[in-house]
Amino acid sequence: MSICAIVAVDENWAIGNKGELLVSLPEDQKQNFKVKTLGHPVVYGRKTLETFPKKMLLPGRENIILSRNKDFAVDGATILHSVDEVLDYTKKREEEVFFIIGGAQIYDQFLPYCDTCIVTKVKKTFEADAFFPNLDNIKEWKLYSREAIIHSVKGVSFEIWTYRRCAEN
């Protein structure tokens, strides 16, 4: 079993503002996020579901939604109520890659269990109130690969950086 965070950040590692994404990048969503997560379980919080168009689940993936509300239900989704429940669930599927897709609280809770982070680095700064930890400043995370710069139809460019957790020396 592998746990991978996948996230888009600005130059300050910001990920959101007032419950919304900073920028929607169709190229990143189709060529990176969708390609990598399709066919795999995605784990996210209830608030992230609310940002999806029409609050629809992501197709072609098992949607695992984390909510403290024991009465919360969404047709077609697996609802779990704690990090421990998610970790127990992942242990039953040793061959699977689970993707953590947000929001900020969910990333913070699961980063200690991730072995890989796929980070879309947007070459711009935005007003923000939610951030992802700066992996460049955390010694157990090392840059593994970096893809070519992509220019978005939204007028910004971005790169996709993959980080891997290293054993500490």
Care to describe what's here?
- The chain is an alpha/beta fold and 169 residues long.
- The chain has a single domain, classed as Dihydrofolate Reductase, subunit A.
- The protein has helices at residues 26-37, 46-49, 83-91, 104-110, and strands at 2-9, 14-17, 20-21, 42-45, 63-66, 78-80, 97-100, 116-122, 130-131, 141-146, 150-151, 157-165.
- Strands 1, 4, 5, 6, 7, 8, 10, 11 and 12 form a 9-stranded mixed beta sheet that branches. Strands 3-2-9 form a 3-stranded antiparallel beta sheet, with no helix packed on it.
- It is globular.
- The two termini are 24 Å apart.
Topology:
Elements: E1 2-9, E2 14-17, E3 20-21, H1 26-37, E4 42-45, H2 46-49, E5 63-66, E6 78-80, H3 83-91, E7 97-100, H4 104-110, E8 116-122, E9 130-131, E10 141-146, E11 150-151, E12 157-165
Parallel strand pairs: 1-7, 1-8, 4-5, 4-7, 5-6
Antiparallel strand pairs: 2-3, 2-9, 8-12, 10-12, 11-12
